[in-house]
Amino acid sequence: MDKLEKGLLMVLLSSSVFATYLGFSNPDLFTNRYMMEDGAVEYATVLLLLASCLLVGYRWFTYNRAQPIRFTLVSALIIFSFFFVAGEELSWGQRILGLETTEYFKQHNAQEELNLHNLVVEGVKINKLIFGLILTTVIIIYLVLIPILYHKMKSASYLIDKWYIPVPRLRHVIIYLALNLVISQIPASKNWEFLEFGSVLIFFLILWNPVNYHLFKTQGK
């Protein structure tokens, strides 16, 4: 574990303790100030998402000539996914740029914002379907199944390395599960906003220093 990872984990620990204390002691302050729209936590989440894009982009730009096309494909998928989530988090800059909500989004978006995750289509909330059920399933597979297969099956580890998939370390998985367990107990609304921040921070650390770090030329140990 290098200095960057230690530092970010300390940030996560201290902010989690504060969030838990505030969420139980003063739920209104937690919701309206600590987790406010366009607040520090939301912007920190976006910065971590963009930092993840830059990290993967830097590795691709630096090493893509020596790697097969699979490296480019997976890198592009990661960058697109993280950038998309960052854009959705900020409603694609709507409030920053002062953009008006179009008529379609006024009618079909639960918060009347220019984003997709708050859309309601035929009574179905996209946020709950895609960013809830489907994303949760993907995360569980990635954090639990992938590491098990990587360590237990040579054929699986060969395939995972072949496709340059960053494998979470055990500490990343444990911290993610602990974070979910603790933050989900906070009675204040918008506790999920902090969970987003913590989750994104952990995924940045996975990209920064995965089990198979040797594939990505990282310096972390």
Task: Characterize the structure shown.
Helices cover 70% and strands 2% of the residues. The mean pLDDT is 91. It has one domain. The chain has helices at 3-25, 27-34, 40-63, 69-89, 94-97, 103-108, 126-152, 154-162, 170-183, 191-208, and strands at residues 120-121, 124-125. It contains ten helices and two strands. By secondary structure, it is mostly helical. Helix 1 packs antiparallel against helix 10 (191-208), helix 3 (40-63) runs parallel beside helix 10 (191-208) and helix 9 packs antiparallel against helix 10. A two-stranded antiparallel ribbon has the order 1-2. The termini are close together.
The 3D shape can be described as: globular
| Helix fraction bin | 55-70%
Total count of helical runs of at least 4 residues: 10
Structural class: mainly alpha
For the report, how would you describe the main beta sheet? 2 strands, antiparallel
What is the end-to-end distance? 5 Å
Strand order in the sheet with the most strands: 1-2
Multimeric state: single chain
Poorly predicted tracts of residues: none
User: What's the number of extended β-strand segments?
Assistant: 2
Mean of residue pLDDT values:
91
Q: How many domains, as an integer?
A: 1
**Estimated share of beta-strand residues:** under 5%
